[in-house]
Amino acid sequence: MAEMRVLITGGAGFIGSHLAERHIELGDEVVVLDDLSTGRIQNLRLILQHPKFSFQQGSVMDLDVTSKAVEKCDIVYHLAASVGVRRVVDDPIGTIERNVSGTMCVLRAVDRFKKRLLFTSTSEVYGKSAKVPFSEDDDIVLGPTVKPRWGYGCSKAVDEFLIQAYMRQHGLYGVIVRLFNTVGPRQLGNYGMVIPTLVRQAMKQQPLTVFGTGEQMRCFLHVSDAVHALTQLASESSAKGRVVNLGGTEEISVNDLARRIKAITTSSSQIHNIPYDDALGPGFEDIDRRVPDCTRVRQLIGFSPKFDIDAILRSVVGHELSEKEGQFASGALQ
Ligand SMILES: NC(=O)c1ccc[n+]([C@@H]2O[C@H](COP(=O)([O-])OP(=O)(O)OC[C@H]3O[C@@H](n4cnc5c(N)ncnc54)[C@H](O)[C@@H]3O)[C@@H](O)[C@H]2O)c1
Q1: For the segment 223-278, what is each residue's pLDDT rounded down to a tens digit?
Q2: Separation between Cα atoms, residue 91 and residue 88, nearest integer Å
Q3: Which residues have CB under 8 Å from 204's CB, separation 6+?
Q4: How far does the centroid of ligand 1 lie from the alpha carbon of residue 60, in Å?
Q5: With a 6 A CB cut-off, is 106 part of the ligand 1 pocket?
Q6: Nearest to 8 by CA among 61, 51, 63, 70
Q7: 77 is an active site residue
Q8: Among residues 152, 166, 191, 276, which one is catalytic?
Q9: 153 lines ligand 1 (CB under 6 A)
Q10: Can you give the three-state secondary structure of 105-117, one letter per residue?
Q11: Structural domains for the chain
């Protein structure tokens, strides 16, 4: 495909930084717009000095800044968002504001300059539906508004409605990708992400904190598989206007995950089950099973992830070890 100029909002974050690297590898020009609220410049260290890369610190809630960045590019990946269960519980106003106002600004800009948009939505939009697996056209079953946890999925669902409206009314070229649990190097554990949290605890020989009974089942996708699929979906014309699930399909319970992490890190840590109410506030609701139906993404781009769960865990542990060595080398841990 011809060289493109790509804008990635939220590109200093976990997934965005891998996506930026991928487009640089493909020979494209990449601009990252990020306010560094949860993202980090060090996530971009491999490409920061590359002649085809540029970083702009700014918020997608600023229409002027966003419009200027959008005008100069061919395609916009809109990833900037407030992410993570812990974050939405701790800062429900900030989460909803960022997710809805930010997307409104991006949409105004891409609509004005007639650019292509790929939006990263989330499996959280399915809410607490008990259906297995989740298919793109399923009903949304959100929890009550008195529980802040549902504010994240609901804000992303509002974003999806907005994109659908722009596609219908103004002919916007949009693709909505509902990411399921995506994991890999650079993901932070600070906002409730399970794998980085458990891996760091195991490596420090601290108790592994598993919320609830630990029998809840999850599927994980390695970030390099996710990013590969995102770039394909962005350039695949039959994905235009579609909502697409993207996730791993190998189910594992959080207890099993903790046991495998202990084995891979040869950790002697104990597994501690913590009631949801203690971990995430009274009345916190979780989902027993969250499995994507990946038929659509397989049909569109022949999606077939390379990393199984053990390869994912080895990749995260390897990254944590190299970070630790880097900190020792620079004296940061002394
Ligand atoms: N990681 C997952 O498992 C997962 C699952 C489902 C959906 N997603 C979606 O993928 C996207 C990326 O998530 P991530 O895991 O990389 O999270 P992340 O927190 O690492 O990345 C989000 C980035 O957005 C930036 N940002 C936030 N508000 C901004 C603003 N107003 N202006 C500019 N930049 C802003 C942050 O600084 C950060 O760099 C998000 O849209 C998220 O909803 C992620």
Answers
A1: 999 999 999 999 999 999 999 999 999 999 999 999 999 999 999 999 999 988 88
A2: 5
A3: none
A4: 12
A5: no
A6: 70
A7: no
A8: 152
A9: no
A10: HHHHHHHHHCCEE
A11: 5-188+221-247+291-306 (3.40.50.720)
- For the chain, the maximum distance between any two Cα atoms, rounded to a whole number of angstroms, is 59
Q: What is the pLDDT of residues 225-236, one digit of tens each?
A: 999 999 999 999
Q: How far is the CA of 11 from the centre of ligand 1 (A)?
A: 8
Please indicate whether residue 192, judged by its CB atom, sits closer than 6 Å to ligand 1.
no
What is the value of pTM for the model shown?
0.95
> SS3 helix, strand, coil % of the chain, rounded to 5?
45, 20, 35
How far is C-alpha 292 from the geometric centre of its chain's CA atoms? Answer: 15
Q: Are 258 and 214 a contacting pair, CB within 8 Å?
A: yes
CA distance 271 to 250: 22
Q: How close is the Cα of 137 to the center of ligand 1, in Å?
A: 24
Rounded distance, CA 189 to CA 200, Å? 8
Q: Which atom of ligand 1 is nearest to the CA of 39?
A: 39
